[in-house]
UniProtKB/TrEMBL annotation, chain A:
Family label: Belongs to the leucine-binding protein family.
Protein name: Branched-chain amino acid ABC transporter substrate-binding protein
Limits of the Leucine-binding protein domain: 41-348
CDD domains, A to Z: PBP1_ABC_LIVBP-like
UniProtKB/TrEMBL annotation, chain B:
Keywords, comma-separated and alphabetical: Amino-acid transport, Cell inner membrane, Cell membrane, Membrane, Transmembrane, Transmembrane helix, Transport
Residues passing through the membrane, by range: 22-41, 48-65, 71-100, 112-133, 174-193, 222-241, 247-267, 274-294, 300-319
UniProt organism field: Micromonospora antibiotica
Domain of life, per lineage: Bacteria
Record protein name field: Branched-chain amino acid ABC transporter permease
Automatic annotation (TrEMBL), chain C:
Keywords: Cell membrane, Membrane, Transmembrane, Transmembrane helix
Annotated membrane topology: Multi-pass membrane protein
UniProt entry tagged with the keyword Protein biosynthesis: no
Transmembrane annotation, as ranges: 32-55, 67-89, 96-115, 135-157, 220-238, 269-292, 304-331, 343-362
Protein name from the UniProt record: Branched-chain amino acid ABC transporter permease
Keyword Transmembrane helix: yes
Length: 382, 327, 385
């Protein structure tokens, strides 16, 4: 009997403690960074681990490099870059957005890196008055939703598809066969391309992710007698596809978007990808502004991959804002909106929807030579 | 719907389907053997196959094989690759049996527990090959395994050529090799199970473990034998895969294993010939379906066919048996 | 080493059971008080600020996730685990496609509740409705439960007559079918682009919402935990009802149950449908809270994670499976440094738990007894496989 009293007392004491603690709880955020004259905190979110990390890490590295260089040059400013790893999953990105939006020390956001996570979190950042600069979310309709705080330093799928269409036209493509992987990115860019190439579209197929055998697709390409094959998607499916196409004797030229701008693509196809064309809204290393490529190489021991320059530019916008003495979310948002400067990847100036001025987007065609992705030519937009 | 395309090239699609199904069938054998004797789904079998492809990759990389070697070398590399894959896959299967299944068998755990253990093993193997291998190997083995989470290419050992042209149906040398080797492996296994002393032991345990034990059949040995045989078949499939598709990745097992298991169930799990029939049937259905609709409906078609077949023939096309039919 | 783990484990279990026994021995009012305290604590969790316990919060680390947001995920996973427990733990049916029901639940609120969905747009056009019209949240809630219930019956009807192992593969296939259809049927589901602006209780997501706003996730957690408590109560009632006893009977020996007058197929179908509805409910909350879904969020890995939650926690025991769900959802968030190794850790955990403690961390008494009986039978007849 006595024991149960003790327990009841204990429970009551615990309840009191809890209620008491509830009164003085901290919300976990709220603490402001003690910064000098200028500086602040930026959040960057994206798939930094998981299967798609390879596409996103260069951008994170680019942003890190920009912040590091800034902090070295401006000892009175202390800018911190906080990374949030979403694994590319919109459902993980949402609570992160709650966290970043609720923590007033964050003044700007770089991300999302994929279109899905950007779409999911845009309303939250807008409600918090935070600017969002995406280095790599390319889905065309992201900027068509009336969102006031979303910007991207990368051309959208429509722009790239337009450039691909002009390229195909300049090569006198008569019969184009398009294939996509049914992902938001691959299907999106392929649909945009189909709008642009009109009657030269000779046939289409959709494959599924992790597919290995493409006999049915290859039969369709053969039946269509295509002279160009466009594949919208990523390396995993593209490498075996192009290899099997070549083995089956299809001579059609293989064209793919920046999802294939990945050293694993020629390696994965082990020779099959020779001569394939990859378009990318990214500048070749030697054309990129300033010393970015060399610095990146020095810092991370490898060449900046896809979106490395965009990540750098995304961070640079905020760094310029801090340098300019902007200290509130509203000021920074206004600053981003009015940004007008040469960046590393391209000239950056946003239109009223948040897309970078289409005339400033640069799209390059690259060609696979051996295991190298070598720059071929700059593509005209439309 | 592309009916005209399907009908117009029916022969071609059938050939494509058969060569696709042959690999399913070889992997399906592993499921069927284990199921026939132990009545459990070795969910980790897909990873046994994956390990085999990495063994082939490792061997070919170590020998510095280039694209399209001369025919003598090509045969040598194929044989060596087969040995490496069979050892790696058979060894993995045995290791799984020893580490995971044996303690469970001792406790007479229900099938659910086996299945979940197998799923766990499968996850561990996928992740080990995806993450740890490149990390542990560090700078020592980067060219051997690359970033295994990404796709890794392998050299083309045999150039694909059209061997036979019948009407508008072309049969390539690779398709023929894949199909013939699969059928030969299968026939060998069938002979082994049905005609040899060891095979008799396997059938005996499959029929009635207790009586078999009384008759002096060493059960543990039989179980090890079937895991090893299943592993060797997966190794053979891994070699054929490497020759035909020329790439691997840590995660290739899951989808393939799912299809192979579907094939085994379609044919009648526990039935060796059923695995062949199920695999070929599934391969053909998939290619027909992908032609008729689009390739992205392939998996849906495969699973719908599975559900429909099971509704009307709950024990698969040929029925279940490892011990019963021929014993 | 393993022996050490085993004996430590045995001690822990005996402690757990003795806690359970002592709890049951307490007077009614004290039991009630303890439960009230626990419930109060659950509601208080998102505000957790007890000194010494704040390290539990996921936002206590740099780059950590929103605490209330993580708690919400834990809560809906608990809901999933409770639902899957009905199927796996109580009725003994292995369902590897539970994500399919979760997806149907999420898609039903998205398709009928969001103004961006093709379905809503089509209805607007057909019936001349204003472009802001969509099915209200509460109706979507009903819809998602009804739709998942129906899909559970539709899947169960042809497949539940199959033996357990076949069921596993068929359900796995079902989960994949749902995901691939969501991805390919662009005209119906928007395909890979996903659907945004999924409504909450106060209507479409908006910064002006008073309670379920965009920035604060706490109300969502409170909503989810309320649903969880409600469902725990309901499932508990069900477990001790005629249906619940039928499930156990079928799980332990189907033939014997049939002889005793339990119709196994009906019992299984009930379990399947109820499990599906619970999965649908959690999917509904998931879609509603995130306000955005796309097919990549429903892949087969999650099905496996769900099964892992149930078996690691202790299938058949609601407290056990809830613990499993919380652990598997919470640990990777709190210890983000191992994020890249999370699937490896899940795999290892599954293998170790199954080999060392097949009944799970907090086992159901009945289940533990069953396993013990089987192990004893194995010792008596070592020849049996």
């Amino acid at each position: 009997m006595r024991r149960s009293y003790v327990r009841a007392l204990g429970a009551a004491a615990l309840a009191v403690a809890m209620v008491g603690a509830a009164g003085c709880q901290d919300t976990g955020g709220g603490e402001t960074t003690a910064s000098g004259d200028c500086g602040g905190k930026i959040a960057i979110f994206g798939a930094f681990t998981g299967d798609n990390a390879g596409l996103v890490l260069p951008s994170l590295n680019g942003a890190k490099l920009a912040v590091k260089q800034f902090n070295e040059k401006n000892s009175n400013c202390k800018v911190t870059l906080q990374e949030f790893d979403t694994q590319g999953d919109p459902a993980v990105a949402t609570p992160f957005a709650n966290q970043i939006a609720g923590d007033n020390s964050f003044l700007g956001v770089i991300g999302g890196h994929f279109s899905g996570e950007s779409d999911a979190t845009m309303p939250i950042y807008q409600a918090a008055g935070l600017a969002m600069v995406s280095p790599s979310a390319t889905r065309a309709d992201l900027t068509q939703k009336g969102n006031k705080s979303f910007f991207r330093v990368v051309g959208n799928d429509g722009t790239q598809a337009g450039a691909v269409a002009t390229y195909l036209k300049s090569q006198n493509a008569a019969k184009v066969f398009t294939i996509d992987d049914g992902s938001a990115y691959g299907a999106g860019i392929t649909a945009e391309l189909a709008k642009n190439i009109g009657s030269t579209l000779a046939g289409t197929d959709k494959i599924q992710e992790k597919q290995a055998q493409f006999d049915a697709t290859i039969s369709k390409i053969k039946a269509a007698q295509a002279d160009f094959v466009f594949y919208g998607g990523y390396t995993r499916e593209a490498a075996p596809l192009v290899k099997q196409m070549r083995a089956a004797g299809i001579q059609a030229k293989f064209v793919g978007p920046d999802g294939l701008y990945d050293p694993a693509f020629p390696k994965g196809a082990s020779g099959g990808a020779e001569g394939a064309i990859i378009t990318c809204p990214c500048l070749p290393a030697d054309k990129a502004g300033g010393t970015f490529s060399a610095d990146y190489q020095k810092e991370f021991g490898q060449a900046p991959g896809s979106y490395g320059a965009e990540g750098f530019d995304g961070a640079q916008i905020y760094l310029d804002a801090f340098k300019d003495g902007k200290k509130t979310r509203a000021d920074i948002l206004a600053y981003v909106k009015a940004y007008d400067k040469q960046g590393v990847s391209k000239y950056i100036k946003f239109d009223d929807k948040g897309d970078v001025d289409p005339s400033k987007v640069v799209i390059w065609a690259y060609q696979i030579k051996g295991e190298e992705i070598s720059a071929l030519q700059e593509l005209k937009l439309s | 719907m592309h009916f005209d395309e399907l009908i117009g090239h029916l022969g071609q699609h059938t050939v494509d389907g058969l060569s696709k199904g042959a690999i399913y069938a070889l992997i399906a054998l592993g499921y069927t053997l284990v199921y026939g004797v132990l009545r459990l789904i070795n969910f980790a079998h897909s990873e046994v196959f994956m390990v085999g492809t990495f063994a082939v990759l490792g061997l070919w990389t170590a020998f510095g094989v280039k694209n399209n070697p001369p025919i003598g070398q090509a045969v040598l590399f194929l044989v060596l690759g087969l040995i490496a894959a069979a050892i790696a896959s058979g060894g993995t299967a045995l290791a799984i049996e020893r580490i995971a299944y044996r303690p469970l068998r001792r406790k007479n755990a229900p099938p659910l527990i086996f299945l979940i253990t197998a799923i766990g093993i499968s996850l561990v193997l996928v992740e080990v090959f995806g993450l740890l291998l490149p990390d542990v190997a560090g700078g020592a083995l980067p060219t051997l395994f690359g970033r295994a989470r990404q796709i890794v290419g392998m050299p083309t050992i045999i150039q694909q050529e059209t061997l036979l042209q019948i009407g508008n149906t072309a049969i390539t040398n690779i398709q023929l090799i894949v199909f013939v080797s699969a059928v030969v492996m299968m026939a060998l296994l069938d002979w082994f199970i049905n005609r040899t002393r060891y095979g008799r032991g396997v059938r005996a345990v499959a029929q009635n473990p207790e009586t078999a034990a009384l008759m002096g059949v060493n059960q543990e040995r039989v179980i090890m034998l079937i895991f090893m045989l299943g592993g060797i078949m997966a190794g053979a499939a891994a070699l054929l895969w490497s020759m035909r598709f020329g790439f691997t990745q840590n995660s290739i097992g899951f989808v393939l294993g799912l299809k192979a298991f579907t094939a085994a169930v379609l044919g009648g799990i526990g039935n060796l010939r059923g695995a062949l029939v199920g695999g070929l049937f599934l391969g053909i259905v998939e290619v027909y379906g992908a032609t008729l609709f689009a390739s992205n409906w392939e998996d849906v078609i495969a699973f719908v066919v599975l559900i429909v077949v099971l509704m009307f023939r709950p024990t698969g096309l040929l029925g279940e048996s490892l011990g019963r039919a021929r014993a | 080493m393993i022996d050490k783990i085993r004996s430590a484990d045995r001690r822990r279990v005996s402690m757990l059971t003795s806690v359970g026994d002592r709890f049951r021995a307490l007077p009614k009012w004290q039991q009630a008080a303890a439960i009230v305290a626990l419930v109060a604590f659950l509601y208080y969790l998102p505000l957790l600020g007890i000194p010494g316990l704040t390290w539990l919060r996921t936002d206590s680390i740099a780059g950590g996730n929103n605490w209330a947001g993580v708690l919400f995920v834990c809560a809906i996973y608990v809901l999933v685990a409770i639902g899957l427990n009905v199927v796996v733990g109580l009725a003994g049916l292995l369902d590897l496609g539970y994500i399919g029901f979760f997806a149907i639940g999420a898609y039903s609120v998205a398709l009928f509740g969001s103004v961006n969905s093709p379905v809503v747009k089509w209805i607007q056009q057909e019936f001349d409705l204003p472009p802001t019209w969509a099915v209200t949240w509460a109706v979507c809630l009903l819809l998602s439960i009804v739709l998942t219930l129906i899909s559970g019956v539709l899947l169960g009807w042809p497949t539940l007559r199959l033996r357990g192992d076949y069921l596993a593969i068929v359900t796995l296939g079902f989960g994949e079918i749902i995901r691939i259809v969501a991805r390919n049927a662009t005209g119906l589901t928007n395909g890979p682009q996903g659907i945004s602006a999924i409504p909450g209780p106060e209507g479409p997501p908006s910064g002006d919402n008073k309670v379920f706003g965009l920035i604060d996730a706490k109300p969502w957690y409170w909503l989810a935990i309320t649903m969880v408590l409600l469902m725990v109560f309901l499932v508990r009632r069900l477990e001790h009802s005629r249906v619940g006893r039928a499930w156990l009977a079928v799980r332990e020996d189907e033939d014997a149950a049939a002889v005793m007058g339990v119709y196994p197929f009906k019992a299984k179908l009930w379990a399947f449908a109820i499990g599906a509805a619970l999965g649908g409910l959690s999917g509904f909350l998931f879609g509603s809270r995130n306000a955005f879904i796309d097919p990549t969020q429903f892949n087969a890995n999650l099905s496996i994670l769900f099964v892992a939650m149930v078996v690691v926690g202790g299938s058949g025991n609601m407290i056990g499976v809830s613990l499993g769900a919380v652990l598997l959802a919470y640990l990777p968030e709190r210890f983000r440094e191992v994020a890249d190794y999370r699937w490896l850790a899940f795999g290892l955990a599954m293998v170790l738990v199954m080999i060392l403690r097949p009944q799970g961390l907090i086992p159901s008494r009945r289940r533990a007894r069953e396993l013990k009986d089987r192990a004893a039978a194995a010792e008596e007849a070592p020849a049996h496989v």
